[in-house]
Amino acid sequence: MTALRRPSRFAGFTTIWFGQLLSAVGTRMTNFALSIWVWEATGRATDFVMLTFCAFTATVVFSPVAGALIDRWSRRLTIVLSDVGSAVATLAVLVLFTTHSVSMWQLYAVNAATGAFLAFQGPAYSATITVMVERGAYPRANAMMFAVRSVPVIFAPGLAAALLAHTDIRVVLLIDVLSYLAAIGVTLLVTLPPIPASGEAGPASLWQDALYGFRYLRARRPLAFLEAIMFSINLFASVGFLLLIPLILARTGNDEAQVGLVQTLAAIGGVTGAVLLGTLPRTPHKMRRVLVSIMVFSLVGRVLYGVGQNWVAWAVALLVVHLCIPFIDGYAQTLFQEKVVPHAQGRVMAARQFVEDLTIPLAALIAGPLVDRVLEPWMRPGHTGARLFADLVGTGPGAGIGLMYVIVGLLGAAVAVIGFAVPDIRRIESILPDVDLEPPPGRRQPSERPDGSRTAPRPEGAGPALEPAPVEP
After folding, report:
1. Are 75 and 83 in contact, with CB atoms under 8 Å apart?
2. pTM (2 d.p.)
3. Could you give the angle at which helices 286-296 and 311-339 cross, rounded to 10 degrees?
4. Helices (H) and strands (E) in the chain — how many of each?
């Protein structure tokens, strides 16, 4: 099926994107400032980890409900409410610091609230891209959204550190609140096109809608397999993310400067990847690029990081990691945007968010105990692991973490091989047709069920349909 062409609204999308970029810089500054404050106030790594855990857990828990509401509400309303909620949460933290009444449980609660609002934001933006830009520009728009995650990593910590050196954390929090207001303002200024009508007979219950995205993916085997690929590589990537800083600190004797240098170079790789994704010409082989990127991500970005013994090797590995992520996430996101009907994208994207964000707490349960109780002791001089793998990852502190990186790198490469071997994954672009963004003139939009079938549209003036006519998705 061929979608009808419509005027590009990329300028409007760019305006909203710029507002979100400002907001992301403010949020990154706050995250950096709060991390410093928490460490100086408590000196406990557990408190630092719990802030992240509360935020991601809330995002996972609220994602299904968020998806149902995103497809019921207007996308503008969803985006604005998400930003308003995050601004109010940040303002609450500002009040706590101003009144000198801040405590850790309050920060946990605020992070959980912010995570709940973020459950709405990601799927809403992904679904909005579909109706705001032309189909061929999806990768470029997704690359820009990835840049919202990467660019602030380069600048925000330095800006926050400079402000903390001359003022205090309240100024950083105030800037974050103002950045949210800027994002809200530009969203209200831009005209967002309506979502094409679903043609559904009537609204389902909130519970049914919350599960709709999962049923939608399960009913379409190629999309379900694609999401399985994304879950797997996200799980292995999350293991690496959680162990990134500990490996450097263990192998350098707690040299924090090398941590900062490596992370800055990694962020530059992310921006470079986003720019490349946004400028490459349109391709009919997006899935192949996803799988190739996963292979490079795993073998270079993870295995090299594990065997590396100095900041140069770690910087190169992480630069490659962040260079590949826009291609993995951007092209996968584009495939979902092309293959999922617009009126269901909020629910489907929220289901994806639930599945993929679940990998972070799962990775935490796997990585910590496995490294601390098994791999690190196993790689001490004189032990079996040290005798087997000393030439690969060395011995002593950090060697067990390095071996974990080698393991997840090889597992990630295996995921790419499986993807190439399974036709439903490798040929997803030809197996599943692109969805029509608008019904052809004179026809009503057919109602699509979660199992992939559609009720046939009735001619004008016809009575009730006695039996739905299935149409292949």
Report:
1. no
2. 0.76
3. 160
4. 19, 2
